[in-house]
Amino acid sequence: MASKIKVDQLETADGSGTIALQNQLSGMTTASLPALGSAQMPTGSVLQVVYGYTNSATAVATTSYTDIGLSANITPSSTSSKILVTYQIQCLLTDSTADRGYAIKTLRDSTNIYEPSTQYANGYIYNPSTSSAVQNTAFSSGTFLDSPSSTSSITYKCQAKSLDGKNVDINGTGGRAMITLMEIAG
Hints:
The structure is a single chain. The chain has strands at residues 9-11, 18-20, 46-54, 58-60, 66-74, 82-95, 100-108, 111-114, 123-125, 134-146, 154-162, 168-170, 177-184. It is mainly beta. The chain has one domain (50-184): Jelly Rolls (Sandwich), CATH 2.60.120. The strands form three sheets. Strands 3, 4, 6, 10, 12 and 13 form a six-stranded antiparallel beta sheet that branches. Strands 5, 7, 8, 9 and 11 form a five-stranded antiparallel beta sheet that branches. The protein has a two-stranded antiparallel ribbon with strand order 1-2. Strand 7 (100-108) and strand 8 form a beta hairpin. The two termini are 46 Å apart.
């Protein structure tokens, strides 16, 4: 059973007057409120957010970019929308004889939207010793604003490669790789 409070007047906090409440909300329903669709949202509004992750360990031992199981799909509501792509990936690098590094590339379907040059790779360990193994857990992250000009379903994904062909363990220490897509009204 719904509760009701019935009053004819409310007195102000300082007692200096009253507030009449006669039919102030009569006839108002949720159907009478205007609905805002994505087309009515102002430029810069967040229209939708999509999240993807993987906690599966993936070993990458190639100098070519390889899928690592990190992706998310989004269908923009307008061709003028922008997609803000952010990712974070945990990698484990181990070596006892040389420096090590890896790189992460981000794609929209098959289109490259960011690929670092080798000297600006995402993770790196320096090993001056040749007698003991050095391990480094590296976190890579990136943020990109993409303009896909599409209202079709789009897949954004990350790929990884080893800079020297030796093993790079994505989520090798029980981590989680994450990707977030935000549609921004254009």
